[in-house]
Amino acid sequence: MQENEQVGQVRLQKFLARAGVASRRACEKIIEAGRVSVNGCVVTELGTKVDPSVDEVSLDGALVCQPNQAVTLMLNKPAGFLTSMKDPQGRPCVAELVPCDEIPGLYPLGRLDYDTTGLLLFSTDGELGNAVLHPSRHVDKTYHALVKGTPSEKALDRLRHGVELEDGMTQPAAVSLIRRKGGNAFVEITIHEGRKRQVKRMLEAVGHPVLRLHRESFGPLELGSLPEGKYRVLSSQEVAALERAAR
Q1: CA 56 → CA 4, 39, 53, 97, distances in Å?
Q2: Hey, which residues does 168 pair with through a beta bridge?
Q3: CA-CA-CA-CA torsion for 48, 52, 53, 58, nearest 10 degrees?
Q4: What are the b/e assignments for 8-19, b being 16+ CB within 10 Å?
Q5: How many Å apart are CA 120 and CA 124, to the nearest integer?
Q6: Candidate list 55, 60, 113, 167, residue with the active-site label
Q7: What distances in angstroms separate CA 226 from CA 76, 77, 128, 215, one per listed residue?
Q8: If we measure between CA atoms, which residue out of 202, 72, 215 comes closest to residue 140?
Q9: Considering the entire predicted model, what is its pTM?
Q10: Pairing status of strand 210-218 against strand 10-11
Q11: For this structure, is 113 an active site residue?
Q12: Distance (Å, rounded) from C-alpha 181 to C-alpha 211?
C-alpha cells in the first residue's frame, strides 16, 4: 500500500489534492499555514491521515469533499442569472457560479426567478433533492420582498389565511411588515409550497406587486453573511438538519 496508509485512510495533503483544492505540494503549504481543520480541529502536521468516509475536512471554514462523496452547497444567487445549468440563448446561468467542473453532478434544488436573489441550494444527492422538493414535505422558505405601496393589516391577513390564485388557493403564509421605504415597504413572507412565482403572485393578488425579491432561508438554513455571488459547501450537520426538515 502506498505511503504506508491504513485501509480507508489517506494523508491529508493527498485528500485535499484529490478534492481539487490544489497540487499536492501547494496543499502541504496550505496545511502548514493552519488553514485546514479535521473534525473542527486545526491541523498543521503533514503526516496527518484522514478517513474520507468518517472525517470532516475544512479549508478556511468551508467543508472539502472528494468527488465520490455527495455534496450539497448553498449559493447566494445574484439577480440576472437563470436557475439553469445551461441556456440555449446564451444567457447567464447559476451553473457559472458554482464548481460544476470540480463537483460533477451538481444541480439546483428548486428555482429562483431571473431577477430574484438569495439562497439557492445545489446538490449531487438525488434523494435529498427529491425529499426537499416534494410537495408533501412542506419545507419552509422565507423571503424578503420590497413591494409597491404599504400593505394594510387586512392585506397581510389575507396572505396569512391563503389567497386564491389561478392554480388554486394557497396555503396560509407567515407574513409581517418589516419596514417602510418611501411610499413602499419591505415584507417578510414564509411559505412551504413551491408553485411557480408563488410569492410574487400572492403579493400581487393583494394589491402589492413585488419590486424586489430575496430568499433569506430554506428550511433550517440561512444565508447569514455569505456574500452575493458566492457559495459554500454545507456541513454534514446542516445536511442532516435539512433532511429532518424534509421528513
Answers
A1: 22, 5, 9, 24
A2: 165
A3: 90
A4: ebbbbbbbbbbb
A5: 14
A6: 113
A7: 7, 10, 22, 13
A8: 215
A9: 0.73
A10: unpaired
A11: yes
A12: 12
